[in-house]
Write a structure and sequence with these properties.
Oligomer: heterodimer
Structural class of chain A: mainly alpha
Distance between the termini of chain B: 56 Å
Low-confidence stretches of chain B: 1-16
Number of strands of chain B: 0
Distance between the termini of chain A: 25 Å
Radius of gyration of chain B: 28 Å
Strand content of chain A: under 5%
Largest sheet of chain B: none
Largest interface: A-B, 117 and 102 residues
Number of strands of chain A: 0
Mean pLDDT of chain B: 88
Amino acid sequence: MTTPTRTTRAPAPTSAGAPATGRAPGTALRRTALYATLVALALVFLLPLVWMVITSLKTYTGAQQIPPTWLPDPISGYGYEQILNNAANPVLRWFANSMLAATAHALLVLATASMAAYALARMRFRGRGVLFALIVGTLFIPPTSLIIPNFLIVDELNWIDTLSVVIVPGAASAFGVFFLRQFFLSLPRELEEAAVLDGANQWQIFWKVVLPLSRPALATLAVLSFLTNWNDFLWPIFVLFSPETLTLPPGLGLLQGSYVTDYPVIMAGAVLASVPVLILFVLAQRHIIQGVSRSGLKG
Amino acid sequence: MADVIEAGAARDGAPPPAADAARRGALARRAGRATPYLFLAPYLLLFGVFGLLPILLGLWLSVHQWDFQLPNRPFVGLDNYQELFSSDSAVYGDWWQSVRATAIFTVFAVPLLVVVPLGLALLLNRSFPGRTFFRAIYFAPYVLGVAVIGLLWRFLLDANLGLVNRLAGMVGLPADTPWVTDVPWAWVSLVGVTVWWTSGFNAVIYLAGLQDIPQELYEAAKVDGASAWERFRHVTLPGLRPVLLFVITTTVLASANVFGQSFLITQGAPGTETRTVVWFIVEEGLRDNDAGRAAAMSIVFALMLAVVSIANFRLFRYRED
């Protein structure tokens, strides 16, 4: 894996998996063109995010200037003060709700999907094939087409406007079961056989052998589940409505309603909603990207 | 956990008498037979209530007149479906308007979301220092939620205060384009934002596919004097076929389910021109209280997507021959 800091040395010509390029004369020119393209694209991808941060640090009038200014002058905490001190829009509460919901959701997915996936990968029992086909089959049903019946079900459970409604229903993750089952199938059976000889029961094998060996897959699923839940918008805007129970995505919508054109405030809220997932992404970047490509190709 | 280990240890401790052992054996076998179901139970509870039940309930709702505010929810057969297809019903115009909006978005977004990420992946598949860094940057917007990117782009695309028109002005283009309030600009905005937001995701999937194409094929093609374009056309593209099928299928499904972008960025404008199917369904079911009709729409919509996906698979298998 190439590191971003190693910019002075040309890469080894035999770098795995990449078409050999630029060994011919004219290399320097081609390299410059390559980096120019890369940097230009990076600007396209990053500038909007940078603009979000810049705007969040402007004053109300600073953000209203036409044409817009590139830098906040003066740098102002106005946007952040507004969202943190307004009792009608308890943004910190939404932040805590989102954190709690996404964490609980990820743990619930991990616990239920890993146990089910273990049974499906490693045990023989009647109905296994049918069950697995059913679970995989639901992957092909667009979740949005089940939103109305799901609403009636959570209504029946009296979960509307409680955090349960954003933690539990989405945790019935067919993707999680499928993804972990594929991973468990790839683990060597010998380790389990050795554990059986040592007198371990299925639960002990699962807990002490299979789960520790599956940390990368579990981490990937945890991060993806957390991200999905943290960012979910369509479901919460219909099942949460009290200011105290909102999560950040529907909360941001409310914020936009109350501060119609007060962009520093709205952008401060957007920054607050972005920071945890961007940090998580930076920390788990390699796992997320590998997890995405693996789940994409084999699932 | 500790109990389980101790129980196990106790059982191993002293060998029980023969008759006892036989009974224990039978018990263990029975426990053994229950084990898979015990492991599955927590998931199956969730899956049953929030995965399977909604499917059955959806079918049930779709043949009833299901108004939240009414005590009676009479069986109406296929009326809810018929309404969607008969031009004199009250819902017909709005429903097909939303189908049209979704189709316009999908038709323009999918080709871009297939081609642009492929370009990114080819670029990032070269070996150069900083590859991982750039890969992360292009992927970064994808980890943000639609609520954030929606608010952000609503602001960036604002005709007066927005950065997009400012930059357009700087390079001599019109600086007053109504990006979010008029067509075709609203469509350009919705598609453009989605390409910006999700290209990194498809690029990563392409990258994984590119790694799987044997290097020897490229070298053989080079020896045969194939140009870069010919190598792309005859080695890369065929090698990516399964990945392309995956990318196209998932991108069509994701695009057809578009909701947040139009809800937040164009807010359906102008009029209800950019109001999509998913938006219309939840509005019908949860705001206008007609869960039966909304369920029928959901089922028709899911069937439309199934047809598109099957056609997609067919097309690709045909081309493989």
